[in-house]
Design brief:
Helix content: under 10%
Radius of gyration: 13 Å
Shape: globular
Distance between the termini: 40 Å
Length: 123
């Protein structure tokens, strides 16, 4: 079992920045890939970013490429999502996920999910 605990969500103004954290515990080790997804009201869950836990490979949705950065700290079993130049359309519940191996943006291949954290971008 893998437990994922997210933090860092909140309210931010357009153009601002926010960093989300996801701390993993349990049977997490270097072969697990990590990802971030988001879901806005009335919309389907969509992929945001993914990272191979030890391989250094990253993958981003086109909508966030150049603005968001996914990173990891293996010593802390933690992944981060640095969000810059935030837009109102980034408003959503953001979910952290873990999967065996590197599964990229395919949500159905992730095995564990965090509780979600609300990000609101508004003036």
């Amino acid at each position: 079992q893998v437990q994922l605990v997210e933090s860092g969500g909140g309210l931010v103004q357009p153009g601002g920045s926010l960093r989300l954290s996801c701390a993993a515990s349990g049977r997490t080790f270097s072969s697990y890939g990590m990802g971030w997804f988001r879901q806005a009201p009335g919309k389907e869950r969509e992929f945001v970013a993914a990272i191979s836990w030890s391989g250094g490979n990253t993958y981003y949705a086109d909508s966030v490429k150049g603005r968001f950065t996914i990173s990891r700290d293996n010593a802390k079993n933690t992944v981060y999502l640095q969000m810059n130049s935030l837009k109102p359309e980034d408003t959503a519940v953001y979910y952290c996920a873990a999967g065996a191996g590197y599964v990229g943006g395919i949500s159905s291949l992730y095995d564990y999910w965090g509780q979600g954290t609300q990000v609101t971008v508004s003036s």
